[in-house]
Amino acid sequence: MENKVEKKNSKGRYILYIIFITYLVVLFKIVLFKYEPLADIIKGDIGADFRSANLIPFKTILDFFSIGMKDNSLLWAFSNIFGNVCIFMPLGYLLPLFFEKFRSLKNIVIVALAVSMFFELSQYFGYLGSLDIDDLILNTLGGVSGYLVYVGIKKLTSNDKKLNQVTIILSAIACIGAFTIAREQFGSLLGLTNHEVTTIGQENLPQREPDIMGTYLNTKNEKIYMYKGMVAENSSDIDFSEKLNVEINDKTKFYCTEIDELKNESIITYKELSKEEFLKYESYSILKVWYDESDNGIVDTIEVSKKIPTSGSAVTIESNEKKEIHGDVEEVNNRGVVINLITVQESENGSSISVVGKDEHANLIKVEFSSDAKFTLNIGKANGDIIERKDCKKEDIQTKDTVALKGTKNGEVFIADDIEITRVVE
């Protein structure tokens, strides 16, 4: 009789192990590869382009609620916010179920925070998404909530067999509920449903990549002045952006892009504008420029879309003003380094979000070092722990290091006198 009971308990335990392993796979997919279809992940065809960081507590949470209230989509906002809580609840529940050392609130907080930190840093350094302190808060809260559920059920059950049965039933209910909400709110994002993209009027634009992509400033004497690349109006690093201009004439065609985002469909409309309508667009709108293929000096077509939404005013620096910039080292040379600039978007309440481009979207800055420059090297792990901090020399800098530089701007070159290097090791 005892053998039969043990076998049933063993079967229940095996089912729980399968649930736990499945959960970990789903966790990796949702957190690290949320924008990638499963087929692409299996093939290793993972596109990594941009990363961003938010270090202001509760900023993202408040933004979600603000957008949800404005667009009458509170369920979407709640799903985004509490999804970060719910996705970590199984971790807080299953770990103490399997391992005795995790049967304390303190240890669950530590492991939930550590796992969340691992995911956030992996997203940032792997160009897979955003590093967000709100995710750390919500994920840790999820781990704690899961642990409290475990403690409550443990008090209500008399033996391990019942605990296993309750866990399996709860897992089934949670999976059905999570799948239903995920499919409804994020089906296309998670690869559960197809997201259709409908374009209207695109056939009127040149069927090739634009010759220039930039940020509109103004128009004077038949010349359009712009920044090269996408620049937010209040970026603290706007002074490093390259300016250029293109000449238009009566034959230049203008189009605007209007995007209507539905749950499972995006409708992109390319609407033709008159020159007068184009001139009404505000500065920092995004431009795509195509030259006439038969004459590269003549602009054939311009596409304009709305500016990057920001708040606050533009931040500029004088050449003799002390400045701190951040970036990833792309090249090391005899005079210094070339970095891929991490631009910072600042808002009126003092919060900031940093964004760095990759490949053709990179914003490369030449950096030279002053004669008395100070160098500091931080060796750290992917989870954010600093293993070693020491003084170093400029020869110690390597490509892919992340650097924080203090100094002044001299023409197109940044002269750094204080260099803090961060290097992540396995």
Key structural traits:
OB fold (Dihydrolipoamide Acetyltransferase, E2P), 426 residues, 35% helix, alpha+beta, eight-stranded mixed sheet
Helix fraction by DSSP (H/I, runs of at least 4) = 25-40%
Please count the beta strands (DSSP E, at least 2 residues each): 17
Q: Helical segment tally?
A: 9
Structural class call reads alpha+beta
> Which series of helices and strands comes N to C?
HHEHHHHEHHEEEEEEHEEEEEEEEE
What is the molecular shape? flat
Spans of at least 5 consecutive residues with low confidence: 310-319, 346-353
Largest sheet: 8 strands, mixed
Q: What would the average pLDDT be, to the nearest integer?
A: 79
Number of domains: 3
Strand order of the largest sheet: 3-8-7-10-9-4-5-6
Rg measurement, Å: 26 Å
Strand content: 25-35%
Organism: Romboutsia weinsteinii
Protein name: VanZ family protein
InterPro entries: Teicoplanin_resist-assoc, VanZ-like
Pfam family, one: VanZ
